[in-house]
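#dry-run=false #mode=assembly
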Amino acid sequence: MKYWRVPLDTGEIQVTRGRVHIIEERCKGCGYCIEYCPREVLQFSRKFNKKGYHPPEVKEEECLNCHYCELLCPEFAIFSIAAEKAES
Amino acid sequence: MKNSSTTATPHPLEDLVRMDRIPHIWCSGCGTGSVFTSCLTAIKQSGIPYNQFAMVSGIGCSGRGAGYINIDSFHTTHGRAIPFATGIKMARPDLKVIVFSGDGDLCAIGGNHLIHAARRNMDIIVICVNNLTYGMTGGQVAATTPFKAKSSTTTLGNPDTPFNLPLLAYAAGATYVARWTMLHARDLTDAVQTAIARKGFSFIEVLSPCPVNFGRRNREKSLDTLRKYHENTIVKNGAHPSELDVDFNKGVILGTFVNVDRPTCDEVYRKMYWPAEEPKEQRKTG
Amino acid sequence: MKSHVLTGEHFINGDEACAEGAIAAGCKFFGGYPITPATEVAEQISIRLPQVGGTFIQMEDEIAAMTSILGAAWTGVKSMTATSGPGFSLMMETVGLAVVTETPCVVVNVQRAGPSTGLPTQGAQADMMQARWGSHGDYEIIALAPSSPQEMFDLTITAFNLSETYRTPVFIMSDEIVGHMSEKVIIPEARKIKTVSRPRPTGRKDRFLPYKPGPNGVAPMPAIGDGYNVHVTGLTHDEKGYPVMSVETQKEMMARLLGKIRNNLDDIILTEEHRLEDADIVVVSYGVSARTAYTAVEEARQMGIKMGLLRLITVWPFPEEKIRSLAKRVKGFITVEINMGQICREVQRFAGLTPTYLAGHPGGAIIPPEDVLKIAKEALA
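#status=ok
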């Protein structure tokens, strides 16, 4: 994410990070998670699942673990878990 | 973990879902699954043991909800989820009884039960998934289908005026009335949680897309519907129920409209008809 | 604990006796809707239920009344409703739900003359076939027909016991005449009243199959909150209770639903025989009409006609074996009923070549014994 002005305490603020988990075979390809991810970390993958849908895939490791995809997904096919604190 | 492939970690709601019945029957782009997820999330977050809940559904797409939740759950006849829930509640008032069903089920064939449960302030939670049509039977006109909208039985447009459901529930005496869309998943989850925590008749209308049987006839893909939910809705808590018609051209009002306390049916019944219980308490304290 | 059974001798009408029978049977929930001539059942039980820790609720219509008793039944309590013809019609869809979900409950039909609004304050027995076939689809049902206020008490208890044993709705097919007739009703001591409660499951909750039948063809029934996480549906379902849309599952489910009644006929079918031993002609009757039939038998005997009575206490399932065996040795059957030939058809089905006659009535009054005697004389002439 780009800022036009960087907050002074940006180095001290701890940002929650999440890891997106996708259960591809459950996906019915509605695209809700992709369209409404506030950080736009998801996109349609090129592969097909067994049902013939394109499940989402993670394009950016910018997930903030907000769980919105988890709440919106009608298929119990996506969720996020708090990531271990990044090394860097 | 770029290009993450399928995970081995279980979904956090799997303890509440009959996983042996997944995938569910809801179409791609149907919002019922989203409403269901919000509902399950609220149940989980309530911290109340699952065996203190019962879910009752009627017939229709959202009526299948009861079949997927891994608690005691009842898939009844068309329109009769509320009287079934009433029987459960009056016989076991300690249970949290959730009715999860659709607009056709609850407000057309079951409309009489809806208003009477509201009148009695029956202590149940009614989650009404409103997709503006009869989805399971192929998209016929419903009591909620917007004026002029097309359906398989109104091919030139709906000549009738739809219900304003929050107004109906309010007028009948519901003590908690809210409306959200499935896209407002957090507000919806909060609303269900509020309803679980309170006592009294709670009616939560949730607008939800039916891309296959409503959208197809009204030139609306599911993401178009969600865009309307995003852009043409106004959150206005406390709005008067009379201003809540579903008209996306002027903007659909969402929020919590009624949240008042009134003794519930089971409370009043026991106080009036089981007098033996009261003096016992008084004797202890006095 | 003080017993709530009103032990003693009472002079009460059939509807009130029915309510007392329900209390004695352990009923704890009644969902009702007023209708003549069944209203007194609701009125009486609305007073009595709170005294025994039970709940009465008057619902918005008979559909809701019937549905509410199913919800209550799944909390583990015994539940019932009472109605008459028009309400019985409205309840029919939910009766099917009770059958397929194997939910025990008792439904009282204090019959009045129909069709439609008919004669609300006058009796009939014209809902007998509706009791058997009123809900859509194939099923077996249990229906009992009380002939007196005493039997309104006794058979209400029997109805609860059968419904709990076989996890099925049981009908009490009364009529306006028995319902509104006041007679002596003897209520025994509570400890002498045999009551049955549904078997509850034990054992592992995660592997429990709510529709896997036990030895008598009936599965134990958990209550909400027991932790078995049952799913109950009106769709065709397997032993787990899950909907399965297949012919095989339909076959298995139907075999289970029909079998638990058909394989236990000896336990379910109750009849009373009066002077059948040497009878040439058998009167088949039930409910209030059996009283007519009884008088007719006595009068016939005085006239030298060898008449006997087979009184159906259980009307459904129909005692077909009884009719078959009688048909081998008697000269004719006369069915006495306040309708234009419903149970008469059943008798006909099993009577073979033995002639059958109807002493019927279109409704609104009882059948005079002379009608029966007239038919008997003609039959034997």
